[in-house]
Structures are given as structure tokens and as C-alpha cells.
Design a protein that fits this description.
13 helices; single chain; mainly alpha; 3-stranded antiparallel sheet; 381 residues; two-stranded antiparallel sheet
Amino acid sequence: MSTALVRKERFLGLKVSPLNRRRLHNFRANQRGFWSLWIFLALFGLSLVAEVIANDKPVLVYFEGAFYTPVLKTYAETEFGGEFLTEADYRDPYVADLIDQRGWMVWPPVRYNHRTVAWDLPVPAPAPPSAEHWLGTDDQARDLVARLIYGFRISVLFGLVLTFFSSIVGVAAGAVQGYFGGWTDLLFQRFIEVWSGLPILYLLIILASVVEPNFWWLLGIMLLFSWMSLVGVVRAEFLRARNFDYVRAARALGVSDRVIMFRHVLPNAMVATFTFMPFILSGSITTLTALDFIGFGLPPGSASLGELLAQGKANLQAPWLGLTGFVTIAVMLSLLIFIGEAVRDAFDPRKLFAGAAPPEETGPAPEAGGTPEPVPARGAE
């Protein structure tokens, strides 16, 4: 096998089958979805290092021949010649002057985190955009860029974790229903019908009056209901595949049901599952945004895109609040939808983009001593 062929059969160092190679070609050929993926990964990657982009602490401090990293470790004011044993306030002119006399500080591009209050605003909050606050401040004098970066990160992380766990539960439930069928399928379907009819919003309101909501509390509550989104798709795939010849052959050979379900049938069902995941992710992010907007989401003070929209609604005289939140959510959801469409088309055997590799087809097995008759590749529809 030539070196060029070996390179074509590998992706990120892993071997890929001809079918998966064709799917990758199709995904890359969809320019809108391909570039949306890279833009979304770049934005998410930047938000993961939000502490070095927007923070009220220096990234690096050089003082009396030693280096300090305040974003990673807490230092007392006495470390820099101050008088108190409490954490150093690097924005305090007194502490800043002590450090500047015998060293220097490297600040992040935005000198505020999502909780820092700007006490020196020249106008009442919410303040309009300026050289100090690029997108202005909210109604509590907190920098909007900092809250936007931290809010984007927590929204995406919430969506990713919720999508991951809900997919695991939904795939497992759908696999059990579709593979065993009969009374198992019937009882599961009746349970899902009852469970999906529960008023989620009212339950959240009742529980929020008992305990203070936080990230993991909201994640657990939403997981109780979000797992049902994939059950129908996986159930249908297992109902279709459980009577295939290879499944019957595996049963005849004595292979256990668990091995047949998760090793032989599940890979075929994952095609439909993967196409739904970007849309489930966007739905999870929208759910958290909606809960924060109505006041039943993350605790007060947390960076949240929904809370930013609520502030824009309450402060119509400050249009930068609502516009910033709206544009951020619109761009994020649009990127996820474009990625989802590209993934769906990449897994669709009927789709073939310009520049993508044609699907490989083989004709019927030749008779003994004969030569196979070539089958032309199917073109784009």
C-alpha cells in the first residue's frame, strides 16, 4: 500500500473506513458548516481561558526578583510590602504603587472579571461603551465584555454536559425498548408519555423556592426530562435492526443480548444519533438562557446570557445590553445549527457535494472464473 493511500485512510492519527472517509469529505465540502465548526471551537477555546482574558488580577507579577501568578494563586498583601494578611487588591492604587516601585505587572486585555464592580464610572450605571468598557456596563456597573465571555463559557459547558449525559440515558433507554420490544417497549412508551407530560417549569419554580439553584442542580433537573429527545430515534433503529440476519446469526451463535445491542446494533443507530446532537446542544443552551431570563436559572451574580437579556428588557434606555445578549445568542445558535446541518448531510448517503469523494459501490459477486462488472458511481442528486 502506498504512503499516499495510508495518509488518506487516517484522520487525526486514527484509521478510518472508506465510508467514514466519505463522510469527512462531505462535511469538509459543506463550507458553511465546516467553517462554523472552527469558529465555534475558537470562541469556545477562548472562553475556556477567560481568566487570562478578562480578570481583575494581573496575569503575571514581577516583584523583587520573583514572579507571581495571581490568576492561579492567591497572595497576601504582605507579599508585596503591604500591611494586611488578606488577599492583595491589585486594583488598589496603594498596592499597585508598591509593586510598580520594585517590579511590574502584566494585565489581561480586560481588567475586570464578571463580578468586578467599576466604582469609578463617570455616569450612572448602566454606562455606555467607552475606551475602558468596550461594550459598556450592566445596571450593576459590571463590565459587559467580561460577563459576555464568562456567560458564553458557562452556557456552552452546560449544554455540552447536559447533551452528553442525556444522550447516554436516551440511547440506553431507546436501545432497550427497540431491541426487546413487546411489553418492555409498551411499558416504557407509556412511562415516557406520562413523564413528558409533567410541567417542567412549574416543577422548577416549586423547587427553586425550596433550594437555591446552581449549575449542578439545574443540570440534574433538566437531565430528568431531556433524555427523552433521543429515545424515539434510537428505538426506531433498534426495532428495524433486531430482525436483520446478522442479529439472528449472533443469537444462534449464543452471543449475549448485551453484546449484540452495544457492539453490533448500536453502531448503526449512532448515525441518526450524531445528526441530532448539535440540535440537542443548541436546545440545551436555549433552555438555560430561558431559565435565567425568567429568574429561575443560575444564582444571582452568575455570568449568564439570559440574565443579560433580562437586564436589556428592564433597561430600554441602554440598548447595548439587549443587543449584546441577542447578537451573542444568535451567533452561537446559528453556528450550532450550521454545524448540525453539515453533520446531517455528511451522514446522508444521498448527499454528495462538489469536490467530495463519490460513494464507493460494488456490484454483485462474479461467478467462478469470471470478472466483476464495474458499477458506475452514483452522482449528486
